[in-house]
C-alpha cells in the first residue's frame, strides 16, 4: 500500500496502518489544523505532512505523490446534532465532495473512510455510494465500536472499505451494513479500566472541580478499576460533562454507590456535602489514559507546548487505532 492520509489529524490512521503491519508506506498526510499538525509532526517527523486545504488538491498533485490507497476521516459535524445536521449543505462537506469529484481521474485501489454514526443515513453517504458504483468500486459499510474488539470504550463509528474491481475482499460482503467485525478471534470480554490508568499521586489538577461536584453529580458516568466499559470521549471532555465521556474513581464501587445515595439527599451547598463528595476521589481521565483507551501506542506523545484542553480536543476528534487497524487488514 502506498498511502495518502487525508484529514490526518494527530495521526490516527498512521498509527492504525503501523499497527496493522501491512507492507507499505504513508507517502503523505494532509491536514489544515495547526495544533493537529504540530502533534503529527512530533510523532511522525519523517512523513511528508502538507498543511493544505483539501479543496486545493488537484488530480495532478495526487498523481505526483504516487499513491494507490487513501485513508480518511472527513469532518463529522455535518452529521451530528451539535453540528446542526446540515448534511451535504454544510460547507464542511465541500472537501469530501471535492475528493469524490477527483476520484474518476485517479488510480486508487483501496479506500478506507471513517465517520460518525449518522453518516450512514445522510445524503453525503448517498453521493459516496453513487460515486463508488460509477467508478467500479466494490465496497462494504460497517458500524463498529471498540467494545466489540475487547476495548472498554464505546465509540460507535461508521466505516466504509472500498476496493477497485476486479479486486475482491477476503470476506463475504453484504448489501446492508455489517454490525460485527467479520474477522476471527475477537475477545469475548473487554479488559479492565485499571490497565490504562496512570499513577496520579500528587497531581490534583484532574480532580473534578467543586462546581461540578455540587451541581452535576447526578449525570456523571463513573468508572472504576474493574470497570469493563466507558463512554465515548468527545472533544469537549474536560470542559463540559454531559455526554462528553466518563470520569474515574479509585474508591471501591460499592463505597461510591452507597455514598451517592446519601449525597442525593443532602444539601449540595453544605460543607458536609462537599467533604463527603470530595472523599470519593472523582477525577477526569488523563489524556494519556484516553489515548490508551483509543489504543494509541505507548510511544505516542504530545509536544510540551500543547495544553490539556488541546489534548482533549484532538483526542476527541481522533479514532480508535485498534478498530481501524483491523479494518486495514481486511482492506
Biggest sheet layout: 7 strands, mixed
Order of helices and strands: EHEHEHEHEHEEHEEHHEHHH
Give the termini separation: 10 Å
Poorly predicted sequence stretches spanning 5 or more consecutive residues? none
* Helix percentage: 25-40%
Which band does the percent of strand residues land in?
15-25%
| Main sheet: strand order | 3-2-1-4-5-7-6
Nearest-angstrom radius of gyration? 21 Å
Q: Tell me, what's the shape?
A: elongated
Count of DSSP-assigned helices: 11
Please provide a written account of the structure.
By secondary structure, the chain is α/β, with parallel strands linked by helices. 29% of the residues lie in helices and 15% in strands. It is built from eleven helices and ten strands. The chain has helices at 12-20, 34-43, 59-64, 94-102, 123-134, 210-215, 253-263, 271-278, 287-293, 308-316, 321-330; strands at residues 2-6, 25-31, 49-51, 69-72, 110-116, 137-144, 157-164, 222-223, 247-249, 282-284. A seven-stranded mixed β-sheet has the order 3-2-1-4-5-7-6, with helices on both faces. A three-stranded mixed β-sheet has the order 8-9-10, with no helix packed on it. Strand 1, helix 1 and strand 2 form a beta-alpha-beta unit. Helix 1 (12-20) crosses helix 11 (321-330). It is elongated, with a radius of gyration of 21 Å.
In short:
The protein has 331 residues and is of the alpha/beta class. 29% of the residues lie in helices and 15% in strands. A seven-stranded mixed β-sheet has the order 3-2-1-4-5-7-6, with helices on both faces. A three-stranded mixed β-sheet has the order 8-9-10, with no helix packed on it.
Amino acid at each position: 500500500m502506498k498511502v495518502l492520509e487525508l484529514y490526518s489529524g494527530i495521526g490516527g490512521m498512521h498509527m492504525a496502518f503501523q499497527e496493522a503491519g501491512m507492507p507499505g508506506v504513508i507517502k503523505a498526510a494532509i491536514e489544515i489544523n495547526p495544533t493537529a499538525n504540530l502533534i503529527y509532526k512530533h510523532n511522525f517527523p519523517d512523513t511528508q505532512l502538507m498543511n493544505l486545504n483539501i479543496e486545493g488538491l488537484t488530480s495532478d498533485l495526487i498523481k505526483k505523490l504516487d499513491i494507490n490507497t487513501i485513508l480518511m476521516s472527513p469532518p463529522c459535524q455535518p452529521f451530528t446534532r451539535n453540528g446542526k445536521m446540515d448534511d451535504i449543505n454544510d460547507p464542511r462537506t465541500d472537501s469530501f465532495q471535492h475528493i469524490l469529484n477527483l476520484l474518476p481521474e485517479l488510480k486508487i485501489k483501496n479506500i478506507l473512510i471513517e465517520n460518525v454514526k449518522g453518516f450512514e443515513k445522510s445524503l453525503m453517504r448517498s453521493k459516496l455510494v453513487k460515486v463508488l458504483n460509477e467508478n467500479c468500486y466494490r465496497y462494504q459499510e460497517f458500524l463498529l465500536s471498540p467494545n466489540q474488539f475487547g476495548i472498554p470504550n464505546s465509540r460507535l463509528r461508521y466505516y466504509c472499505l472500498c476496493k477497485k474491481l476486479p479486486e475482491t475482499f477476503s470476506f463475504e460482503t453484504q448489501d446492508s451494513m455489517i454490525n460485527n467485525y467479520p474477522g476471527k478471534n475477537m475477545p469475548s470480554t473487554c479488559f479492565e479500566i485499571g490497565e490504562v490508568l496512570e499513577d496520579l499521586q500528587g497531581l490534583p489538577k484532574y480532580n473534578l472541580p467543586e462546581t461540578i461536584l455540587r451541581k452535576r453529580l447526578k449525570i456523571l458516568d463513573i468508572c472504576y478499576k474493574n470497570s469493563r466499559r466507558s463512554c465515548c470521549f468527545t472533544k469537549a471532555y474536560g470542559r463540559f460533562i454531559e455526554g462528553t465521556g466518563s470520569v474515574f474513581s479509585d474508591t471501591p464501587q460499592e463505597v461510591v454507590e452507597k455514598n451517592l445515595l446519601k449525597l442525593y439527599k443532602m444539601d449540595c451547598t453544605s460543607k458536609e456535602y462537599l467533604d463527603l463528595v470530595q472523599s470519593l476521589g472523582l477525577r477526569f481521565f488523563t489524556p494519556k489514559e484516553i489515548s490508551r483507551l483509543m489504543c494509541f501506542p505507548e510511544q505516542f506523545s504530545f509536544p510540551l507546548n500543547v495544553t490539556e484542553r488541546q489534548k482533549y480536543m484532538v483526542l476527541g476528534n481522533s479514532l480508535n487505532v485498534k478498530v481501524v487497524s483491523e479494518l486495514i487488514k481486511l482492506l
